[in-house]
Amino acid sequence: MSAQAERLTLLEVLQRSTEFLRSKGCDAPRLDAELLLAKALGATRLELYLQFDRPLEGGELERCRDLVRRRGAREPVAYLLGEKEFRSLAFEVNADVLVPRPETETLVEEALAFLDGRGAREADVADVGTGSGCIAVAVAHASPGARVAATDVSAAALAVAARNAARHGVADRIAFAHGPFLDAVDAAARFDLVASNPPYVLPSEEPSLPPELRFEPRAALFVPDGDAGAMHRALAEAARARLRAGGGLMVEIGETQGDAASRALREAGFADVRVRKDLAGDDRVVIGRIA
C-alpha cells in the first residue's frame, strides 16, 4: 500500500490490498480485503462499492493498512473482524477461542435432530469444551426447551462464551463451568445429550496445517499427548457416567479418526455407534447412544 495516504481512493486501496494478500498466499484475497476495509472504515461491503472514488484520509488508511498487514501475516480474518458467523448467528471470537467452523455445524445438526427425535419438550445438554460457545448457544437458540451445561478448562474462553450466550438471548438456559470434561458440573446432574468438539489435531500433522492455525489456542487444537484414542475413551467414559437411559454422545473428530473413535464409544458401553460425514465427505462426528 502506498504512502500517499491522502491521494489514494478506496478502490485503489482495495486493489492494492487484494494484490498484497494474494502475494502472501491468502485463499480469498479480494474477499478478505473487502471485509477488512469495511471493518476499518465502519462500513458494509456494499457501502464500499458505493464509495470507490472517495479518497481515504490518513487515519482511515492507517487502520486499513494495519488490518491488511496482520492478515498478510496470516492472522485469521475472524480474529481481525472480532466475530464469525455460525449457523447464521454472529459469534464474538478472539485468540482465546477457536474460530467456529462449518464442520462443527454438522455436530449441531445431529444434536438438534437427536433432541427433536426424543419428542420431549425439555432436555438437558452438556457441551464439553465449549470454547466460543458456538455449540451450546446454537443448540439453545434452536431448541427453546434445551438447558445446557457448558464446560471448558479455559476461563478466558468461558468469558467469551458467556458474552455470546448473552448476545443471543440464551444466557438464562446455559450454565458455564470451569474444568475438564464434566468434573465442574454438579455430580448429581444427568443429561440427555453430551456434545463435544475436543482437540483432535495430531501434533504430527502440524507441519501441514494452514498458517492461520498458529494464531489459535494450541490447547484447543492439538490432542493431549498426541493420543486421540485415550482422549476419546476418557470423554466417552465421562459422558457414560452422566447420561440418562437413551441419552446420546456426539463428538467431533478428525477425518482419520472415525474407526478408533467408534471403538472407544463401543468399549465404553455405547450402542448404535455411527459416524456422520461432513459436507466434504470426511468423517466428522462419531455418535453413540446409551441403551
Report on the architecture of this protein:
The protein is an alpha/beta fold and 291 residues long. It has two domains: 5-73, Helicase, Ruva Protein, domain 3 (Orthogonal Bundle), CATH 1.10.8; 83-289, Vaccinia Virus protein VP39 (Rossmann fold, 3-Layer(aba) Sandwich), CATH 3.40.50. It is 41% helix and 19% strand. It has helices spanning 10-23, 29-41, 45-49, 58-72, 77-81, 102-118, 134-142, 155-167, 218-221, 228-240, 258-267, and strands spanning 83-86, 89-92, 123-128, 146-152, 174-178, 191-196, 243-252, 271-277, 283-289. The strands form two sheets. Strands 5-4-3-6-7-9-8 form a seven-stranded mixed sheet, with helices on both faces. It has a two-stranded antiparallel sheet with strand order 1-2. α1 (10-23) runs parallel beside α4, α6 (102-118) crosses α7 (134-142) and α10 runs parallel beside α11. The longest helix has 17 residues, at 102-118. The protein is elongated and about 70 Å long. The N and C termini lie far apart (62 Å). Mean pLDDT is 95; it is low at 1-5.
Largest sheet: 7 strands, mixed
Rg, alpha carbons: 21 Å
Number of helices: 11
Architecture (CATH level 2) name of the largest domain: 3-Layer(aba) Sandwich
Q: What is the beta-strand fraction?
A: 15-25%
Query: What is the CATH class name of the largest domain?
Result: Alpha Beta
- CATH homologous superfamily of the largest domain, by name? Vaccinia Virus protein VP39
Q: How many strands appear in the DSSP assignment?
A: 9
Q: What's the rounded overall pLDDT mean? A: 95
Q: In what order do the strands lie side by side in the largest sheet?
A: 5-4-3-6-7-9-8
Order of secondary-structure elements: HHHHHEEHEHEHEEHHEHEE
**Helix percentage:** 40-55%
Gap between N and C termini: 62 Å
